[in-house]
Design brief:
alpha+beta, five-stranded antiparallel beta sheet, 9 helices
Length: 583
Amino acid sequence: PPPSRSVPFSHPPPCPETGTGTGKMSDAPPPSSARYFSTIPDGYKPVVEYAWEGKQSLKALAGLAQDWAKALKVCGADLEKRVQQHPLPDSEVSSTLKVAVDSVKQCVQTMGLNMQEVNQVMESDREAFIEMRHKQSKTKREQIAAYEHSKKDLDRAKSAMNSNKKSYDSSCRKAEKAIIIRNDAKASGDPKLQAKIPKFEVNAKNAIMNAKKAEINYANSVSEVRKLQVSHRTTTYKVLNDLQAVEHKRIVASKATLGLIVKKHLELCETMRMNFEQALKKIQAVNPNTDLDTFMAKAKQDSKNAKPLALQEYAHHGIALLDTEGIKPTFVAPDSKKPPPPGAPGGPAGAGGPPKPPGAIGSKPPPPKPMGANPAGSPGPRGPPAFAGAVPPPPKPPNVQNEPSSPGIPPPLPAGQNSDPTLQAKIPGPPPALGGRRSSVSGPQKTEKKADGSQPVVAKAEFEFAAEEATDLGFQPGDYIIVTDRSDPEWWGGHHPGRPNETGEFPVNYVKIVQDPAGGMLKQARALYDYSEKEEGDLKFSKDDIINVLDDSDAGWWEGMLGDETGRFPSNYTQLINVTTGR
């Protein structure tokens, strides 16, 4: 997409600061978007397991508080035995929370006094703690149900798509067979077959109609699968980040509950003050960010080989005969933008980074077809191609035979060659972009200067760009643009050839420079013969005209600019020259 012209997106924290009881402690939310669960590749399974182990952690702490209160009520006779019955799950083995819990257990083991007041406070806070645990369990079940529902919808859509694909393939084969039978009957001189031609026509027409309907159904099902794939990914990100918010709240609440218990013991048990102060320090060191980072590091290591999302591709029948009968693909991918990378809820991680061109996820968009090229496999004014997708061979120069016998006009060189290969232009990379954004520049804008007073900077569009604002310059793949302003590193100014009054802005990453005299990118050819326009897109010129060569990737047909006109021309009608000497 084109670079953003607005303030970069800022990720919200995954959850607000919450806690239970009166001993709530302050904790900062994760400060970095890299700490979101949605950045874990294929992280749904480990996150769900961690979330349910978080429930066990809450249950363990609630049971610890309950047994602790009972032990306090009976003077702690069997407290040491009971506190050992509630270990935290394995996921907390290296957490700061476990360090705090172990420290508290050691303090409790030294208690021997009956503290009724502390028992009452603990019972009240434990009830709130349990209520919070039930609410979190309900939230977790709802999030998992949303994920499973989204996954079932995607699986059903894939099943329907596979069924439509089979029907599509079968219809294409039947249509191909019916067309061949009809064509053979027309070409045959057998009177019996000639009499059946009307019947064969009807059969072929019906088969073609069925194939078209099957193709439409298949294309619609592929679109539905792609839409549900993106929707399922979005649902997964939301589920993961919602579960992270629950776990953040759980750790903060666990920390607050332990802090409350310890503070009350310090108030009522002065003799245990030193021990519980040490426990309080350990509890205050509990950091949900550290615990979640530890879990995420392990989960990312376990899932480092997870595959990225790949949208369902559309598969055309690929039969040239069916193309001629009108059975052509109707599927158009609606998702022209690359899906956002995993990140915070409501926006991609790292928004505001370098722009990327539009296209299919994880793949470079296909290059534009050459100007004036015929569709693959279809005959045109230049004659049928040698193979599917080939560019027709260039015409021979006038009055030139395969083996010339007169010294009049020299025979054309093989496509793509020159009489003096030492004069081939050496094209370096484009010059570095100028710094600064257009929005921050005041006063008149810098205008691109032509190297020799006549040759402009020319760029070729690699992707379609639709003008979104009145000052934008829209174009199609393959269009050439005269660049007049490169002062902004991400948005340039320019106009189409022959229309200098219709200037506009366009994104840099949608085009590539093909002519830059100041940067050494200038290639010219002299016309050896007259060439008139054979079809739309051709460049007309006369003998001895000097043509700027913009694209010589095709050995037979080049693209160039003469004055304000651009188009394709046969390379063997021209000869490259030295731009300095003109020879």
